[in-house]
Write a structure and sequence with these properties.
The protein is of the alpha+beta class and about 110 residues long. The protein has four helices and four strands, in the order βααβββαα. It is about 30% helix and about 20% strand. A hairpin with a 5-residue loop joins strand 3 and strand 4. It is globular, with a radius of gyration of 14 Å.
Length: about 110
């Protein structure tokens, strides 16, 4: 049974990547970012979920996508913290997360 992104509220931060095909820059950069930053992603309790053509095997497409391609950062509270149509979010993603009040408390136990 498919889950909703909102099922992760207060458990994970979520980076939603909505792309058309594997040649899209946001997909390529997203997968590279995911594989190159595993420890930092885990340390920030971040889950990256890719939606190809508004479909996912385990998740229902969130309403905020509304047939749009791009990247959304969703906080613990389920609110959108940032959105971009390109890959620029990756340049400052960790800084953005680290500036969040809940993250500042988590940084005490950083492992990376």
């Amino acid at each position: 049974m498919a889950k909703k992104i909102s099922d992760l509220n207060w458990e994970k931060r979520v980076l939603v990547v909505s792309y058309e095909n594997e040649k899209d820059l946001i997909f390529i950069k997203g997968t590279q970012f995911n594989s190159n930053n595993k420890c930092q992603i885990d340390d920030r309790n971040l889950e990256i979920i890719f939606f190809k053509n508004f479909k996912h095997k385990h998740y229902i497409v969130p309403n905020f996508i509304k047939d749009k391609y791009g990247i959304w950062l969703i906080g613990y509270d389920g609110n959108i913290k940032d959105y971009t149509e390109d890959d620029k979010i990756f340049l400052g993603l960790f800084d953005l997360i680290d500036s969040m009040p809940m993250r500042k408390n988590e940084m005490i136990d950083d492992k990376c």
